[in-house]
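Quick note —
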Amino acid sequence: MIKGTTLDKVFKGFVIAIILFVFAGVHFLVPGFYSTLFHLTMTGNMEGLVAYITSFGYWAIIISIFMIIITNMTGLPSIPFLTVNGVIFGLVPGIIISWIGEVIGIDLGFIIMRNILREKAQKLIEDNHMAEKLDQYSNIRTMTFFRAIPYTPNVLFTAIAALSRISLRDHTVSALIGKMPAVIVEVWLGHDLLKFSKYGGRFLIWVTIASVAYLFYRHYKRKKK
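Predicted structure written out below.
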């Protein structure tokens, strides 16, 4: 009979192998893919990012979802991709594409942190002084609330969920519900920013909404301390 620890090692090895296979496959099929996207996002070249993703034609949808998934799995910022999606695909399709990528990426990040990177997750929440209040932040209602706030760090709340007693089903539900309002604001704000000459007034309204939401988040977080 295979022991539980052996099964855990096999599962972890399988997950790592799949991730490496996907990364290597993309690199083999599209040489320079990662370096180009890294350069464009790190330099803040949103116009270049729009042009590069658009250059893939119909595959641009898959590329965008893939990159959002990767950023949420690794803890890298997904905002650059959400910012350009409204311009590339249009507002409603861009919101839906971004939402799909966010939910899948958050759930995969949750599975990886819970089963493989628990020590990394523990260190992350300890660095943010949230370890002692783990249970307060880990039920489905609270997790949905924090997922719904635009521009909050997905990786932090994924780490909290991974170390909590929340089930994968409840975590998925919180991501499905919570990320929709956050993604709407992030994609729409990005769309209006990149087309500021036409939508400058509406952009300022979105900035106000995002700022109020962030201040509310900070106030709520202080009350929990």
